[in-house]
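Review form for a predicted model. The reviewer records the input and the model, then writes brief findings.
Reviewer: anonymous (R2)
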Amino acid sequence: MPIDSAELDRLQQAYKAAVDQWVAAIREEEALATPDYSLPAWERWDAAGFKEQDAQDKAKAAKEAYKDGLRQRDYGF
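Model under review:
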């Protein structure tokens, strides 16, 4: 069954939203790289790194879903 334009639009928007969240997570992690060398500061920075990794994984999954939709439209699989 071919994919319709509305579904492709939804997949594209989901991908863009996931990338925006990933960028925000990167900026949050970057902001925590400060001259505060305390253990609590390091732990916050480390936790932000895990959050960034999760956001990256979601963006990659959304990208693959969008690409799959494009393949389905263009090649029928």
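Findings: Residues 5-75 form one domain.
Further findings: The chain has one domain: 5-75.
Recommendation: see findings above.
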